[in-house]
Amino acid sequence: MTAEEGGGGEARRGEEGAEVVKEEGEADSKSHDADEVAGGMGIDRGGKWSRIAMLCKTLSEIRPGKELWKITARITRLWDAILRSSGEILSIDMILIDEKGTMVHGVINKAYIQKFKTLIQEDNVYVIANVRVTPAAKTYRSVENDKVVNFLPTTTIQKIKDTDDIPKYSFKFCNIDMLSKRINIDTYLSDVIGIAAYIGLVEETRTQFGVSKIRDIVLLIES
Q1: CATH H-level, domain 3-160: superfamily
Q2: Of 111, 107, 133, whose CA–CA distance to 120 is shortest?
Q3: Tens digit of pLDDT for each residue in 57-69?
């Protein structure tokens, strides 16, 4: 994707060879002209980003079956998916959230980690183009969404100026009744909030993956 397609500004190469575009705050005196060339993708001097949003899809609009989706979202959570038996990093995973508060699981597979690792950071807002949307796994979904955003070799990512229009966090806390309905149902990972009434010591236990460390915690949560 060229600088014109990606939102104006001066194109450069990141350390891993992935194309990135200067953030608005880094732009030189020609950045205003670049905004016009980019078809309104740049952020104007007032910090408004509505033009960006108009050219991107919301996370509720994207669907499996098309690779060239362009989205604007915040990385609200970021972690490494690790194979417990060997410690091998399988992917970089993230939770993306948009201005509607919609959340979706994002994945950078092992083959592309070096390309994108230095270009993403938790809490930043990005325009991400050329991503593939696939159905989510049937079990242990990190958010209540049946889609996953997958980074491709052709995916481009542009950090843009932060905006209060995109929430920094979003949770769906479960009370006791909701948790009771999820017993033996492993579709979603559940969010809870409460008071830690007891925190046990770290102990070792043997599982099918080898020796793991566990800690018992008792939470007092809303009924």
Answers
A1: Nucleic acid-binding proteins (2.40.50.140)
A2: 107
A3: 899 999 998 668 9
